[in-house]
Amino acid sequence: MPNSATNNLWPESEEAIHSILTSPSTSQTFTLPSGRTIGYATFGSSSPSAPTIFCLHGFPGSRLSGIFFHFPAKELEVKLIAIDRPGIGLSSPQQERTVLDHVQDIRDFAGGLKVQRYAVLGVSGGGLYALACAAAIPSNEVAAVVVVAGLGPTDIGFKGMGWGNWCIFQGFRYFPWLINLLQEKALAAMTTIPKEKIVAMTVRKAGNSVWLGGAHPADIPLLTNEGFVELMVDIQQEHFIQGVDGFMREGKLFTSDSGFRIEDIAEEVQVDLWYGKEDTNVPMSMGEEIYKRMGGGKDGKKRFFGVEGTHLGVILGCRRKILERLVERI
């Protein structure tokens, strides 16, 4: 049975989650002008007139992670459309793509859906893409951007990150062949071992801080909740459904020049930054540096929220507040 800590962060029932994630609305595709396909899932309000938020998943992640924001989005009557990046989930691969290429995909996708004005929500690895949207999309098109425990451009660095994640990003930068080899082996195991066994193994090892790269004690209740772990497995399996190429391209982009600067974000663009004081996946110092480069909020359009919590704690524990603050700006 999940304990009270789990219930506070993730009170949703397994039955409700399963029902939503197996519905047609979470496995939709759209053909971009380039001819490539973009995969997406729709969460929150089903009203055609509801404000639209495009949700950009973490790393590794997929459109299915939009489920984290489904229930508060529904209560607040906003539509949340979660997108797979190229080579991930249902989205066609795009060789040698850049961060800004995906920003153009989002604009083309919005145009195809006849959404003239929208907000962008970037979570964890999706934060870099959300910041790129803030820098590259005119403010008359993007109403507001919110970054939740999100990565920034690589020149900010990875100081303060837990050793497990730090090693992976250094591997992408200096030894990509090794990361590719290890991920190929992990994927081979993932596709041959039954999901139930993967979930059981993860739950059993959740108390092993070495295996988890130093998991915070506050996250252990979630990581030993079989329903939540199964959801995380589903999200990650969807990420790798086309193989490891999309994963490797993501890693390269996170450790290379992003093609834009935080300083390029115009004064009139509204941006909220949410970071956790106990987060070792994406430490709060990264968010503070992003905020500093945006001018520190002197224009009132940029806001920084440093809250108590880990990576999971910020995403799950603050999700309603995050959307409430975002809705104020749409």
Question: Could you please describe the fold and organization of this structure?
Answer:
The chain is of the alpha/beta class and 330 residues long. It has one domain: Alpha/Beta hydrolase fold, catalytic domain (Rossmann fold), CATH 3.40.50.1820. Helix content is 43%, strand content 14%. It contains 14 helices and 8 strands. Strands 1-2-4-3-5-6-7-8 form an 8-stranded mixed beta sheet, sandwiched between helices. Strand 5 (118-123), helix 5 (126-136) and strand 6 (142-148) form a beta-alpha-beta unit. Helix 6 packs across helix 7 (176-192). It starts with a helix and ends with a helix.
Write a compact overview of the structure shown:
InterPro entries: AB_hydrolase_1, AB_hydrolase_fold. With 330 residues, the protein is of the alpha/beta class. The chain has helices at 4-9, 14-21, 70-75, 99-112, 126-136, 163-174, 176-192, 195-205, 220-223, 226-239, 245-254, 284-293, 311-317, 319-329, and strands at residues 28-31, 37-44, 52-56, 79-83, 118-123, 142-148, 271-276, 302-307.
Question: Over the alpha carbons, how many angstroms does the gyration radius reach?
Answer: 18 Å
- The CATH topology is given as Rossmann fold
Strand content: 5-15%
| Helix/sheet category | alpha/beta
Mean pLDDT: 91
Give me the number of helical elements.
14
* CATH fourth-tier homologous superfamily: Alpha/Beta hydrolase fold, catalytic domain
Distance between the termini: 39 Å
Low-confidence stretches: 1-5
Strands ordered across the widest β-sheet: 1-2-4-3-5-6-7-8
Into how many domains do the coordinates divide?
A: 1
What is the highest CATH level, the class? Alpha Beta
DSSP summary, beta strand count: 8
Overall 3D shape = globular
Domain AB hydrolase-1: 51-150
Pfam families: Abhydrolase_1
GO molecular function, one term: hydrolase activity
InterPro entries: AB_hydrolase_1, AB_hydrolase_fold
